[in-house]
Amino acid sequence: MLYHIVHTALSIIGVLLNSFMMYLAITKSPKIMRSCSAIITIKTSTDILASVMNFFVIQRIITDGSSILVIPTGPCTNFGKTACYVGHMLMLCLLEYNLVWMISSYIFRYYILYVREPPIKNLVFVAFCLSIPSIIHMAIWFSLYKPNHETTTTTAFGLTATDMVLSGKIVYRSALTLIIQLFATAVLVVIAYIWIRETLCGFAIKMGAVKNDMKNLNKRLVKVITFQVFLPSFIFLGVIIFAAMFAKNVDYRYAQYSVTIIFMFSPICSPFSYILFVPHYRNVITGKKKKTKADLNACRPRVYGV
């Protein structure tokens, strides 16, 4: 089935690309880039988990406004509806957490530039604290979900008795809530991007003609975040398609395949923001051994009067 092949391929690509990026961040970053390495490692680890959950569920989402159906067709079907619901919720929550971590990484960049380099243990602690709301949120929905209480009629959507379908009030409310949260968080990423870009540009102006390598560093950081701001566009597009299906403006027979496939491009494209625009990682791929001073100082704390 083409749909399974596409989802499997996207999941494998997502795992491989982010694993490779994690490898570069952990093993190929100089000691002075430890904080940046930790930020990238946390980001790639959540992208890997999102890719794994996508393969675990391989879901389609159908809605006509009055109901929302999640049709899992992945390995989770071997473990029952509850396992598929857990996988469905985990994937959406991981996508949201990725966006939250992007916002946090922008704040960390500001902190590194104007204050000092945060210890890795602090970054890990912040990452854990940021995950607590999602964990609590998921735990509440998991406790409310009862697979035997599903009563939504599925024949209207061309589904057969052999299809596993997650439906009912809890699925409707939880899916709608998370998709709205995804959209809202993506908007916050764009706002945070505008803020950090202005901050980096302002920082470069204040430096004046101090050091060319520092100017080059800030230009690279601007390129990285400019690339990253396109990642929420996949979330926007997926949510827009879902909203159009919800409002009955598009045929569910086609839109049901699009939402989760489009969502998956966010974790797949994420590693390229570092591979393409951070010379230290790009040189590892191209085989170049030259390391500039700016590369080695990529995350060095810079304190200037403000």
Automatic annotation (TrEMBL):
Instruction: List each coiled-coil range.
Output: none
Write out the annotated subcellular location: Membrane
Keyword entries, A-Z: Membrane, Receptor, Transmembrane, Transmembrane helix
Q: Do the record's keywords include Membrane?
A: yes
This protein's GO cellular component annotations are: membrane
Q: What is its main location?
A: membrane
Topology with respect to the bilayer: Multi-pass membrane protein
Pfam families assigned to the protein according to its UniProt record, in alphabetical order: 7TM_GPCR_Srd (PF10317)
Q: Which domain of life is it from?
A: Eukaryota
Q: Which residue ranges does UniProt annotate as crossing the membrane?
A: 6-26, 38-62, 89-111, 123-144, 170-196, 224-247, 259-281
Q: Which family does it belong to?
A: Belongs to the nematode receptor-like protein srd family.
What PANTHER family does this protein's entry cite?
SERPENTINE RECEPTOR, CLASS D (DELTA)-RELATED (PTHR22945:SF9), SERPENTINE RECEPTOR, CLASS D DELTA (PTHR22945)
Give the protein's recorded name.
Serpentine Receptor, class D (Delta)
Species this protein is from: Caenorhabditis elegans
